[in-house]
Amino acid sequence: MLVHICCSVDSHFFLEKLQADFPNEKLIGFFYDPNIHPYSEYQLRLLDVQRSCKKLGIEIIEGQYDFENWMKAVKGLETQPEKGSRCEICFDKRFEVSANKALELGENKFTTTLLVSPLKSQEQLKRSGEIFHKKHGVEFIAVDYRAGGGTQDQSRVTKNEQLYRQDYCGCLFGLTMQREQQNRLMDEMFSPISNQILPASIEERLQMYKYRMQLEDENISYKIIKQKFLNYRQFSFRLIKGKQEIIPAYALSYSTLPRKKAQGRVEFENKNIHYFNREEIKFITLKDFNLACGFSYKNINSLIYNPPSYEEEYKFRTFLACGNYDLTPIVVVEEIPSNKLTIELNAKTYEDVQEKLIKI
Questions:
Q1: Rounded CA separation 43/55 (Å)
Q2: Are 51 and 87 contacting, i.e. CB atoms less than 8 angstroms apart?
Q3: For residue 128, how many C-alpha atoms fall within 13 Å in the half-sphere facing its CB?
Q4: Beta-carbon count within 10 A of 335 CB
Q5: Would you state the pLDDT for residue 319?
Q6: In whole numbers, what is the pLDDT of the chain averaged over residues?
Q7: What residue ranges do the domains of the chain occupy?
């Protein structure tokens, strides 16, 4: 039996139940989810599914990540709610590909882990499955593992197996609506051109979940915990001399301006720190930044495109004795300008939750 898989939270419990209920069936997992966005989230879910299937002794096949074709398929349905017509088109596309994969492998049955997801309509899934049964002759196995306390059992399995528990279905449009309803920053969509790993980002979680697989291979015990912290995202930053000359400059993480803009001049210097006469802004030259941190950046552009880690930037804030809760804008420049300056900084700090892995 081919089993279409969407994520490990749904698949691990679902596959365990299938193994018990269909002991004579060889189960083949098929991870086909072109709706997942961004791609780093797709990679993270695939990684956890691969781990899950390995633990269960189930073969896993990865389908094509044809996101562009998925976008074309749901065009015009971007604002449809969860369980609406966009989801139905999404199911149809995944069922079509899954049914064809089953035929390709010589299987005459297929099912989907979407059946166990509380975010999905089972009736909607069954309708799609019946259509493809008639069309392709591949029987759709519509099992209900939510009933009789199944959802609670699934939650227990997820916790015991320390599976990656994503907090949105997967597609860009569902994520957008969910974050708007929650009045939360959609920080999943931040991906710096520098490839800097942002706190509580998908990329940070991907690194952590890869590391946990390494620990498991080495039989090292661990726990994945959550902690609250103050997160930060920088939308844009510019330093302008005079009316329109843009000066190459870099604003360190956790630099904030209450009104997103400040005008003034560098007023004085003390111990290589140059103080602006507005908004507590501090400037430091690239040379002094390199000396303080042990870096060797040749110019500001190299700093912008290959910045230090957040941890290294935080250490530098500590070096400047700014304090643990400091949000002072700290700007690195090649030379301290004497002209009138305009600083445009759009950034946000916000309460967030971060996953951490601890060895025990």
A1: 19
A2: no
A3: 25
A4: 10
A5: 84
A6: 93
A7: 2-187, 232-351
What pLDDT is stored for residue 75 in this prediction?
95
Distance between CA 188 and CA 304 in Å, rounded?
21
Ordered alpha helix ranges (H), the chain? 8-21, 39-56, 67-73, 85-104, 122-136, 150-160, 172-182, 202-217, 286-293, 300-305, 310-319
| Nearest one of 136, 141, 115, 124 to 1, comparing CA atoms | 141
Q: What is the pTM of this model?
A: 0.91
The pLDDT of residue 164 is 96
How far apart, in whole angstroms, are the C-alpha atoms of residue 100 and residue 110?
A: 10
pLDDT for res 80: 92
How many helices (H) does the chain have, and how many strands (E)?
Answer: 11, 14
Class of domain 2-187: alpha beta
Backbone angles phi, psi at 186, to 5 degrees: -85, 70
Task: Count CB atoms within 10 A of the CB of residue 57.
Answer: 9
pLDDT tops 80 at residue 310: yes
Rounded Cα distance, 68 and 90, in Å: 13
The DSSP output letter for 57 is T
- Residue 236: count other Cβ atoms within 10 Å of its Cβ: 10
Residue 355 above 90 pLDDT? Answer: yes
Task: State the Cα–Cα distance between residues 28 and 341, nearest whole angstrom.
Answer: 62
Helix axes 85-104, 122-136, angle to 10 degrees: 40
Question: Considering Cα of 87, then 93, then 98, then 103, what sign does the dihedral take?
Answer: positive
Quote the CA–CA distance of 127 and 115 in Å, as a whole number: 12
Backbone angles phi, psi at 179, to 5 degrees: -70, -35
CA distance 63 to 48: 15
Nearest-angstrom CA–CA distance, 3 and 11: 9
60 Cβ contact partners less than 8 Å away, ≥ 6 residues apart: 5, 28, 29, 30, 31, 49, 50, 53
Query: In Å, how far from its chain's centre is CA 203?
Result: 6
